[in-house]
Amino acid sequence: MGSPDKKLAVLHQLSQEFEPISLKELLGKLGDGYVGRSVRRWLAEMIKEGLLEKIGDKRGAKYKVIHRDKRSSSAGGGCFRVESMKVVGKIRSPIYERHPISYIDEWLESYEPNVTYYIPESFRAELLKAGTRSQGRDPAGTYAHQIFNRLLIDLSYNSSRLEGNTYSLLDTKRLVLEGESAQGKLDEEKVMILNHKEAIRYLVDTAHRLEVSYETICTLHYLLSDGLLGQGYGGKVRAHGVRITGSTYVPYEDPKTLERQLEKIARKGTLIMDPYEQSFFLLVHISYLQAFIDVNKRTARLNSNIPLIKGNLVPLSFNDVDRDDYSSAVIAIYELQDIRPLLDLYIFSYMRTCAIYDAAAESIGFDEIRVRYRQERRAVIREIILKGLTGIQMKEYISLEGARLIQEKDRAAFIEDVLEDLKLIDRTRIAGLGITPEQLEGWLAKDHL
Fold first, then answer.
1. 75 within some domain
2. pLDDT at 97 over 50
3. Main-chain phi, psi angles of 169, to 5 degrees
4. Banded pLDDT at 135 (limits 50, 70, 90)
């Protein structure tokens, strides 16, 4: 790992800490390959860059990450480009200075899948280069399964935070992974996070058959809104008008028109070939339509992850996006149909998420061969058990199947994984193999010499 990557890994490690830590503690968590002098230099650089805060002096000094919404805004909008800042300036003017505007049907009508592009080609190429995590042979959702807990925490926390949820990252982690809620928090906030957990699990578990569709959009809305809206509202387009706080935008009110427009968004969305263009299109137009009584932006954020999860690309977790910036970017779509501020946030957050997940993968050491050939490995193990193969017959079968199914460069590691799994197999390890505990016990009872 080169110096830039190591520096990023240092930042990532600090981002996982909930309390400031010392250089000595940091070096202990980073492990071998990190020299104190180099880490100290990177820490000093990141302090100058406004990424870290140093607490105390000399031997007693400790370090912590400064989250973006607490950093100085002197740069003029953080991740917004100059042209986007001009748009945001219009949106942040007093509401009485902005003209009321209704939904403009022609904007969606004028979008032609694979002809119209909201994301310029150069940016799409940059996103693809940063986000690719597969060589094209892995089943849909493989990468999301690989980082599942991290995705649950990041996306649940950030999507909820953008809606004003006050749960901290640590609170969210405890709730999502351990089922523990923070004391004194509102029930609604807890439900919001748990609903995100269920919606994300649905996306990942059904990735192999998931498609952009009217039904999928409504299903995600139902999962995200369950218990938060009155009965009859979850997964159903609204039957009356809504008003957008802080905006002059007046969405459609007729439910038939809303259904028709949502179906049109789904039809156009599913035709888009580029995963990032498809993702951003869904984020923009589901937010803009406001088809549901509430939970529209959350629904848009989860739907925007469908093509990324299916394509084994890094998901969009909305890391480090400031809540006010996000609100302004969405209002720019409502009132001006100007996508530039939201596109800046999308690209900024996505590139940052890719970098953080890379550092996490290197520090954890994911086994790519196990993940890539999961289905083949399970199929070989299943047949060995069902056919009662042991000893030399078993090893010959594994070699033959390895030669038939696996690329030569990966074959030795695949065979090693199969043998290791067979050595450790018991009743707790047969999920997904398609065998019963009784069949396993029968195979274990055989002479394996």
1. no
2. yes
3. -60, -40
4. low
Place of tokens 């031997």: 59
Bridge partners, 313 (sequence order)? 132
- Domain residue limits at 177: 82-364
pLDDT of 284-298, one tens digit each? 999 999 999 999 999
- Cα-Cα-Cα-Cα torsion 201, 207, 210, 215, nearest 10 degrees, comes to 10
- The tens digit of pLDDT for each residue in 221-275 reads 999 999 998 878 999 999 989 999 899 999 999 999 999 999 999 999 999 999 9
Let me know: does 248 contact 100? Beta carbons within 8 Å.
yes
Q: Does 159 lie in the same domain as 193?
A: yes
Q: Are 171 and 184 within one domain?
A: yes
Tell me how far apart the alpha carbons of residues 316 and 144 are, in angstroms, rounded to a whole number. 11
| Residue 100 placed within a domain | yes
**154 and 171, same domain (yes or no):** yes
> Please, are residues 428 and 387 in contact by the beta-carbon 8 Å criterion?
no
Number of residues written out for the chain: 449
pTM of the model: 0.68
Q: Report which of residues 201 and 183 the model is more confident about.
A: 201
Q: What is the total count of domains within the chain?
A: 3
Where among 364, 393, 418 does a domain terminate? 364
* Ordered DSSP codes for 293-331: SS-HHHHHHHHTTHHHHHTTBPP---TT--HHHHHHHHH
The Cα–Cα gap between 66 and 14 comes to 10
Query: Using CB atoms within 10 A of its CB, is residue 36 exposed (0-12), middle (13-18) or buried (19+)?
Result: exposed
DSSP 144: H
Higher pLDDT, 427 or 307: 307
Report how far residue 266's alpha carbon sits from residue 269's, in angstroms, rounded to the nearest whole number: 5
**Rounded Cα gap, residues 273 and 256, in angstroms:** 28
